[in-house]
Amino acid sequence: TVGGCAQWTPFSKAETEAANNAPLARGLPVRQMSPDSVVIETVLVRFPLHSEAQLSEIWQHTDETILPVSQRQRLDNNGLRVGVLLSELPQVIRDRLHQTGTDQALDALEHAGLAADADNKMRKLQCRSGRRKDLLMRRQLQDPLTILSTLDGKRVSGETFDRAQILFDLRAIPQGDGTAVVELTPEVQHGEQRQAFVSTDYGVRPEMKRAQKTWDPLAVRVQLKPKQILVMSCTDPPKAVGKAFFMTKTADHSEERVVLLVRLAETQLNELFAPDIIEQAKALAER
Whole-model pTM above 0.90? Predict the structure, then answer.
């Protein structure tokens, strides 16, 4: 996992070559990615609380029909909105990213990621096929958090969490044609850490874990092309699960809305030259 400035712009060819050659110049081995690896870039873009016009502009550039109607309705009932950008980043997002970069350079709290409980630094995640990566949305909250949800569109249930940490269980599955399926499942980790036994490829081992609450019916599964960007945020007005995940409190106790951007940066698989690894990647994803 790599953190960095929220300026989400591609490197030039010269910068890329310099970065690739830097380890060799120092006499260090170049780190190789596993053949089934997928590189995902994420960033949280924060907007002032009353920014409906700006957020509306974002959705005008987004294709929400990538999900079935029934799933979109279920997500909407729970305050979640998802789509894929139709082209480049809308100007409103570019402006916010530029402002964020300036704030991180000049503001000590922004630079340290402490200006809000949602850290807006860009992150690069190297994901093995089907393996879990934690995509943190909001750091551990000091006050109890109540989250409402409805999974059948009729009955509303609620649960209160102490010391809640808001995140997505993120998984990426390469498809062999340069695309990858990206899965995001809403999750809250809460309470005190306790010892649990987890199963790994090497057997069962003890691990300190906190209690977890996941909303599997609200999981999002989208196939992305290289450089394509998934957009996720809350509905207007914010409500239910979406409000818990995409509303942040700042250091000065104000509230801001959050938009999550997830970009497929790179995959390794090529079904023409490595069919066996394609099958291995699929097997890993099914575990």
Answer: no
CA pair distance 287, 285, nearest whole angstrom: 6
Tokens representing residue 167 in the block? 């995140």
List the one residue out of 45, 78, 61 whose CA is nearest residue 262. 45
Is there a contact between 221 and 257 (Cβ–Cβ < 8 Å)?
no
Residue (of 111, 108, 55, 107) closest to 83 by Cα position: 55
**Mind listing the pLDDT tens digit of every residue in the chain (287 residues)?**
555 544 555 444 444 444 444 444 445 554 567 778 899 999 999 998 888 899 999 999 999 999 999 999 999 999 999 999 998 899 999 999 998 888 888 788 887 878 889 988 899 999 999 999 999 999 999 999 999 999 888 899 999 999 999 999 999 999 878 899 999 999 999 999 887 777 766 677 877 789 999 999 999 999 999 999 999 999 999 999 999 999 999 888 889 999 999 999 988 765 544 555 555 555 555 55
Which residues 6+ apart lie within 8 Å of 245 measured at CB? 80, 137, 138, 166, 168, 186, 234, 258
Task: Give the HSE-up count for residue 171: Cα atoms under 13 Å, Cβ half-sphere.
Answer: 18
Name the strand (E) or helix (H) holding 73. Answer: helix 69-77
- Written as six digits, the tokens of 149 are 């949800």
What are phi and psi for residue 212, nearest 5 degrees? -125, 145
